[in-house]
Amino acid sequence: MYSVEFNKLPNFNNLYLDYISQSEEDSAKLKPFFNAMFRDNEDFFKVIDDKVHNYNTSRYFDKNVLIDILKRQNVTFGGDEYTAANIELLENDNTFSVVTGQQVGLYTGPFYTILKTISAVKLSRDLKERFPQFNFVPVFWLESEDHDVDEANHTYLIDKQNELVRVGFEDESAGEEETTKKNTPPVGSIVFGELINSINEQLRSSLIDTDFKDKIMNMVTKHYREGNDYKTAFAGLMNDFFKGYGVIFIDPSDQEIKRLLTPVFEKELTSNTKLCESIITQSAELEKNYDLQVKPKVINMFFLHNNNRLLIEPRDGGKFALKNSKRRFENGEMLNLLQESPELFSPNVVLRPICQDYLLPTAAYIGGPGEISYFAQFKPAYRHYDITMPVIFPRASVSIIEGKIAKFMNNFNVKLEDIFHHSFLVSKVVDRLSEVKIDDEISKYIDELNKVFYDMRNMTVRVDQTLLNAVDNMKEKTKQNIEHFRSKLINAQAKKSETTTTQIDKVTNNIYPNHNLQERVISIIYFLNKYDESFIKKLFHEIDVNNFNHQVIEM
After folding, report:
1. Consecutive H or E run containing 206
2. Coil, strand or helix: which one is 292?
3. In this structure, which long-range contacts are made by residues 537-543, counting pairs with CB atoms below 8 Å and at least 24 apart in sequence?
4. Do strands 550-554 and 2-4 pair parallel, antiparallel, or not at all (unpaired)?
5. 222-272 pLDDT, tens per residue?
6. What angle do CA 517, 521, 522 make, to 5 degrees?
7. pTM, to two decimals
8. Distance from C-alpha of 230 to C-alpha of 137, rounded to nearest angstrom
9. Please, where are the H alpha helices in 78-194?
10. If we measure between CA atoms, which residue out of 38, 35, 260, 238 comes closest to residue 140?
């Protein structure tokens, strides 16, 4: 295993790059926006120590009720005795949670879902070694109430032809019923209809034939089947993947969970502008250096109405309305509904972390680049609810390099970061195969061109200095033409070696599918089909949870 710095990789926001940087200057820029910095052991201890006092005083429910709910949910999801033991540990005041989460999706979604879970398990063990007087348990928050069906209803694999293939429902369908932008039920509650059988067959036919194919398909179809819903299927399959690791799954859409969250929802309804204003103030400071990820709402909650998850908006006189709906609520009606039917209320992205850390004694939250960026806006929300903000800990980031790809990279001296720049990669590989070294030859012509235009500038100065811009423009256009011609030469060389360009495409499909990192696109199913359960064990063994570079693991 080796690692690559994130600033050599594409599509990472500047806030995340500064957050994981070891530079004191970068750390100082971001420190005001977080309660604790993840590299600082003293900060970690301070959060834990604050939780010891703050968690018990800021919640308005009996923790034993939460424990009973977790026991019931995890039996339903297929949790084993290790999960049960960790739930029991949560009864103690010296036990803290290391939380991660993800929207529930088809076949557990992209590979980073697995990386988040491994990070939570490994950080829990690491913190136990650092602070032996406390216990730490990994918790996976099932984001079952998100309504982005288009994101959840498919996944990607590398098929038998080494092509990237989409497996899933059509964009407009998700299961038993069609969904549209106007009809967006929480994804977790969508029940699979008969169509899931053909999606499973699509998965089977896309996977290469291996000794493990029947086993993995049996595992998948046990959960992703007609009559099951997204959240139950997701949690069940994740439990099969992580047997023995003690991961606790929590479904926040549960009616009894919502009843525990009633005080949080009530405060948001009755003091709605305060939270929004405080986050806007924090965001304005953050925006001086970084792009914002989240725009807070006046009320950061949804209401489930006719199977739609609609944003609650305030109206004059203590009244409320639902966005994109004619439904209105008189003064007091909304609060009465909250007491009678709390399951109809749902937090948005701003309020979700508050709900999570109100329910759980969270010492650390494992997040990806986007999540870390929006947590930078949320410190005032924790202050508003008098909840200790946890340490925001970067999840492990990993690319898997399989044997044939490793061989290709070695043969052509290709680095991981080369693969993210297609024209450079083609040039590097083709140049290595070719008798004519195009880049070397072009460099010679550029050097000669620079000399010609240098002499030309000197001559022009002696004649008329006002013509110097014309000389510079001529030089720039000539360089552009040469660069354009260089690309044509490289393509011509590549066509002579079609086998090599096919290899490049296969490598790109695997490492940089859809112009994105492998972990954000490819499904874990692809790897388990090839390497069986030993794949997760290898990941667990090799991933270093305290390595804050992009880790590369060879198979």
Report:
1. helix 195-206
2. coil
3. 539/114, 539/115, 539/118, 539/398, 540/118, 540/121, 540/122, 540/245, 542/1, 543/115, 543/118, 543/119, 543/122, 543/396, 543/398
4. antiparallel
5. 999 999 999 999 999 999 999 999 999 999 999 999 999 999 999 999 987
6. 105
7. 0.87
8. 25
9. 81-89, 112-130, 149-152
10. 238
